[in-house]
């Protein structure tokens, strides 16, 4: 009995130590965020152990755990018709609101989910819930793309899946099948899905014979570059839940089929040092000292290595591939993009990716709305259902849907 009285407080102290993280004072629901992060870290560590024992790839196990947990929170709707289809070999989930009166055509959103190109699904309740609410709130047909994941496939297969599914949907006969107005279509996505959405819009803008083009693109805390892992937001939020800098670098390595041994080289920007000739032409396109407002730059300094390793880019050429890094696109490509919305969160390593893209689009003449949230964190928009219900999720989701409603 005495041992229990000693053991229980010790376990409680250890649990509190594991859960607690020093967070900025402005973060909404800090303790709930700490619990979410601790749960995710514990799951990741378990999956890495399984990987180390060579029982399975850690991302496969982690995705299995996420989907198993997700089944506990099934989402249904009597008003929205939810169906699965295949668009040019790519699985999609379609959300269709009921017809209203004599309305003939509806607006539409092609949505690409996040998860580091490796996790989550269009079928999970987190994204089911988001797409259902979008369909209801906008009275729009929402097409959620079920692209293939790492480690089953690597770049550029996720990109190809997203392009194929979107182009198939944009065919006039397919739009007619779903009663969609061809002049009122948006392409959207969050995080890695925002990366794919931006890349899809860039590709579509280059195809001259495309009969239908997106009216809008809406990017939610998108990941847009692996050129500089020391932007102010990467430095400021390097240990922030739910996406620390080291985790984002590993997602990039997995996506590009690289070696984890490269992680430190990437972290210190050795892959884009001044002696890496292939990187020089892109440097001005990611010059955050001219692209970010002073409130984002704060007192952080650029990390530019004089001498690095060109071999990294030789081993991973996709590090400078615009299809993987939409922020590297030239000005002519950016000028062809549709009216854009970019949502960023202060407490997110990817904040500056989105802000730089918005500024470059604006300089290229594209109408842009940069919607920045000072108290929010990466991934928050999908966390609106108990037990992962955050005020930040509802706040960002409502702002995003409001912009779509006003512009689509």
UniProtKB/TrEMBL annotation:
Biological process per Gene Ontology, one example term: lipid catabolic process
Compartment(s): Cell membrane; Microsome
Catalytic function, reaction form: cholesteryl (9Z-octadecenoate) + H2O = cholesterol + (9Z)-octadecenoate + H(+); 1-O-hexadecyl-2-acetyl-sn-glycerol + H2O = 1-O-hexadecyl-sn-glycerol + acetate + H(+); a cholesterol ester + H2O = cholesterol + a fatty acid + H(+); a 1-O-alkyl-2-acetyl-sn-glycerol + H2O = a 1-O-alkyl-sn-glycerol + acetate + H(+)
Pfam family name, one: Abhydrolase_3
SUPFAM superfamilies: alpha/beta-Hydrolases
UniProt topology in membrane: Single-pass type II membrane protein
Entry-linked InterPro entries: AB_hydrolase_3, AB_hydrolase_fold, Arylacetamide_deacetylase, GDXG_lipolytic_enzyme, Lipase_GDXG_put_SER_AS
Gene3D superfamilies to which the protein is assigned, alphabetical: alpha/beta hydrolase
GO cellular component: plasma membrane
Active site residues per record: 191, 348, 378
Span of domain Alpha/beta hydrolase fold-3: 109-267, 320-381
Keywords noted in UniProt: Cell membrane, Endoplasmic reticulum, Glycoprotein, Hydrolase, Lipid degradation, Lipid metabolism, Membrane, Microsome, Signal-anchor, Transmembrane, Transmembrane helix
Main localization of the protein described in the UniProt heading: membrane
Enzyme Commission code: 3.1.1.71
A GO MF term: acetylalkylglycerol acetylhydrolase activity
Family, similarity comment: Belongs to the 'GDXG' lipolytic enzyme family.
Descriptive protein name: Neutral cholesterol ester hydrolase 1
């Amino acid at each position: 009995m005495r041992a229990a009285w000693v053991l229980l407080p010790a376990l409680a102290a250890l649990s509190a130590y594991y859960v607690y993280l020093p967070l900025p004072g402005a973060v909404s629901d800090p303790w709930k965020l700490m619990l979410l992060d601790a749960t995710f870290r514990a799951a990741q560590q378990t999956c890495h152990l399984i990987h180390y024992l060579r029982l399975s790839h850690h991302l496969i196990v982690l995705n299995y755990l996420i989907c198993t947990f997700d089944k506990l929170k099934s989402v249904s709707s009597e008003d929205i018709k939810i169906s699965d289809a295949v668009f040019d070999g790519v699985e999609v989930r379609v959300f269709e609101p009921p017809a209203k009166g004599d309305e003939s055509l509806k607006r539409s959103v092609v949505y690409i989910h996040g998860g580091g190109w490796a996790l989550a699904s269009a079928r999970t309740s987190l994204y089911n819930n988001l797409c259902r609410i979008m369909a209801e709130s906008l009275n729009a047909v929402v097409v959620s793309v079920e692209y293939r994941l790492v480690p089953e496939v690597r770049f550029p297969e996720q990109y190809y899946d997203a392009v194929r599914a979107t182009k198939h949907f944009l065919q006039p006969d397919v739009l007619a099948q779903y009663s969609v107005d061809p002049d009122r279509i948006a392409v959207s996505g969050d995080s890695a899905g925002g990366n794919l959405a931006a890349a899809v819009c860039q590709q579509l803008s280059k195809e001259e014979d495309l009969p239908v083009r997106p009216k809008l693109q809406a990017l939610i805390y998108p990941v847009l570059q692996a050129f500089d892992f020391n932007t102010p937001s990467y430095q400021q939020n390097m240990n922030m839940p739910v996406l620390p800098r080291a985790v984002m670098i590993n997602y990039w390595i997995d996506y590009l089929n690289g070696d984890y041994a490269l992680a430190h080289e990437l972290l210190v920007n050795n892959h884009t040092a001044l002696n890496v000739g292939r990187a020089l032409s892109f440097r001005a396109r990611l010059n955050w000292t001219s692209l970010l407002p002073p409130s984002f730059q704060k007192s952080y300094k650029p990390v530019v290595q004089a001498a690095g390793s060109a071999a990294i880019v030789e081993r991973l050429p996709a590090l400078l591939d615009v299809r993987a890094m939409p922020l590297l696109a030239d000005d002519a490509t950016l000028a062809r993009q549709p009216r854009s919305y970019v949502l960023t969160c202060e407490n997110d390593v990817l904040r500056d990716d989105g802000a730089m893209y918005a500024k470059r689009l604006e300089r290229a003449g594209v109408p842009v709305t940069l919607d920045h949230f000072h108290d929010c964190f990466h991934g928050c928009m999908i966390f609106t259902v108990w037990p992962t219900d955050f005020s930040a999720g509802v706040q960002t989701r409502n702002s995003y849907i409001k912009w779509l409603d006003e512009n689509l």
